[in-house]
Structure formats: C-alpha cells, structure tokens
Amino acid sequence: MGCRRFVRLSYRLRYMVLNTPSPIFFCAIALENMLVVNCFRKTFGGLVALDDVNIDIKKGLMTMLIGPNGSGKTTLINCITGFYKPARGRVWFEGKDITGWSPYKVYNEGLVRTFQIPQPFQNLTVLENMLTAYRGNPGESFIKALYRKAWISEEVKATEMAFEILELLDLHHMWDSPVTHLSGGQMKLVEAGRAIMSGAKMIVMDEPASGIYPKLAHEVFSQLTEMKKKLRVTFLIVEHRLELVLPYVDYVYAMSTGKIISEGKLKEVLSDPAVIDSYLGR
Ligand SMILES: Nc1ncnc2c1ncn2[C@@H]1O[C@H](COP(=O)(O)OP(=O)(O)O)[C@@H](O)[C@H]1O
Ligand SMILES: [Mg+2]
Questions:
Q1: To bridge 177 with a disulfide, which of 3, 103, 121, 181 should be the other Cys (CB 3.0-4.6 Å)?
Q2: Is the residue at 73 inside a domain?
Q3: pLDDT at position 30
C-alpha cells in the first residue's frame, strides 16, 4: 500500500472512531443505577417476606415503593440498609457490593435510612440539630477540640451548609427555635436535612407522611422534591397513601405478598390490574 493511501485510510479510520458515539457515551446519557437489588429472598420461619425481588434505583430520581400492608416494603428496605440479612440475593450501591454489610457501614457509604441518624435532640435548636448530624466534625475529637484552629474552619463550613439546607427546606426562619416547636411535617424535613448533613447520597424513608395531615404531607413531598432537584439526592420512599405521592414520583415499584408485581410510571402502575387487585385484597 502506498504511503499516501495508508495515511488517507488511517485518517478515515480516525474520523470514523471519533465520530461514532462509543458505548460509554450511551451509558453516560442513560440514567445511572444508584442501587441494584438482585433476587432478594427473606424468610421469617415459614413466612416468605421477600420472594425473588429485583429493583434498580436510578440516580437523582424519587422512586416509590408502594403496596398494601404486609406486602414486604419495610422488610425490603431493612435488607437494603443492612438491618436484615437476605437469605439469598445481592445488593449493589454505586456499583459496590454491599450485601450483608452492617447498617453503620452502609450509612458510611452514603446510603442513609432517616432513622439511622440519631433522633433529634429535644433540647437543641433546629440549627444545632442539623450541626450534630454533620459527619467528621474534627471538634468531636477530644484532642482536636482543645485546638480551636483545628476545627473552626470546618465548623464554619458546617454552619453554612446547614443554613443552605434549611433555606432549601424553607425552615431557615426557624433556625433558632427549639426543635420541639416544629410541626410533624417540619420534623420530617429536618430528618432529611440531617441526612444530607451526614453526607447522604441516597435517602431511604419509610412512610414519611404517616401521622401528618394531607396538606402538610404535600408540603413535605414538595420540599423533598426540591431537595432532589437542587442537591441531586436519590430517594427511595415507601408510601401506601397513594393519593399523596401522585405528583412527586418519578418511578414506582409495587409490591404484594413479598413480590414486585408491577413497575413504571405511577399512572401505569396504578392502572395495572394486579396492583388494583392487591389493594382490594382479591
Ligand atoms: N421481624 C419479623 N418477624 C417476623 N415476621 C416479620 C418480621 N418483619 C416483618 N414480618 C412479616 O413479613 C411480612 C412483610 O412485612 P413488612 O415488610 O413489614 O410489610 P409492609 O412494610 O409492606 O407493611 C408480614 O407478613 C410481616 O408480618
Ligand atoms: Mg412497613
């Protein structure tokens, strides 16, 4: 082959390679998996609470797990966050196999179930409660606590972060109030805010609207949605009050008797006869 022909051919090949989107490009534009559960099974004696459960939670979305009481929702999130060990199956978080990890290790990875954070301190203000959840504050070390210089800049950073999150949650005007002055809905938001302070990348909440008036529950979900959009946090929320979650959901998994019986957009899932039957107890 002549030298010139070879050069032309190699340029053509380079052009083709550079102008053909690679598989990596397609992966980048597709939604990334944050959490993958594969073939989970959990039994309590003879009762099969989870039976071959598979789910993919996409990064930056609010995914809801719905289903009637006793369908296995809480058991599933207990297995994901390390509180229960599945009898079979695996779970990956950001590509890392976290199956069988202790709850504390899972939390350190940034997968936070809200009650894993210490309950709000009743005698502290809203801001102080946010600050106590901040992870790795050097002032917590006995030795470093004696040297102001060792922790002051981190303390300023934590305080700024707490104010930004409180503003996002529309709670900034209450920063100095005792946490006991907050409504039930506002407490749920503080819980989510504290999860962010602790470095959460994904927040798992079990029925955050329980015991809250529907109007306040809508406020909770709309603030959580703001959090999702602005901070790119991924949510997995268990809820059985379907009328509350309708406007906020990106993706839904429906469970019944330990199995995933339907998945997709909420409207599609709600019109699925299997889901209707499960709610009607047929
Ligand atoms: N710790 C446990 N010991 C025995 N049975 C349990 C335990 N936790 C859950 N179950 C049973 O597993 C099934 C699923 O329960 P659960 O996950 O709490 O459902 P959901 O959260 O959807 O209401 C139910 O039949 C429940 O009684
Ligand atoms: Mg439950």
A1: 181
A2: yes
A3: 63
- Between strands 33-44 and 88-93, the pairing is antiparallel
- What total number of domains does the chain contain? 1
pTM of the model: 0.84
pLDDT score for 7: 45
Ligand 1: centre distance to CA 103 (Å): 19
Pocket test for ligand 1, best of 41, 44, 85 (most atoms within 8 A of CB): 44
Which whole-number Å values give the CA distances from 90 to 38, 82, 228, in the listed order? 5, 11, 26
Q: How confident is the model at residue 147 (pLDDT cuts 50, 70, 90)?
A: low
Amino acid residing at 65: L
Determine the length of the chain.
282
CB 41, CB 89: distance < 8 Å: yes
Residues 97, 196: Cα–Cα separation, whole Å: 23
Let me know if residue 201 belongs to a domain: yes
Report the amino acid identity of residue 163.
Answer: F
The residues, ordered by sequence, that sit 6+ positions from 33 with a Cβ below 8 Å of its Cβ are: 56, 57, 58, 59, 92, 95
In a domain, 33, yes or no: no
Query: What are the tens digits of pLDDT across the range 223-255?
Result: 999 999 999 999 999 987 888 888 899 999 999
Query: Domain containing 114 — which CATH number?
Result: 3.40.50.300
Residue with tokens 């998945």: 263
Domain hosting 187: range is 59-88+97-280
From the CA of 70, the nearest ligand is 1
End-to-end CA distance of the chain: 75
- At 142, is the pLDDT very low, low, confident or very high (cuts 50, 70, 90)? low
The neighbouring-strand residues paired with 90 are 38
**Domain assignment of residue 51, yes or no:** no
- CB-ligand 1 contact for 75 (6 Å cutoff): yes
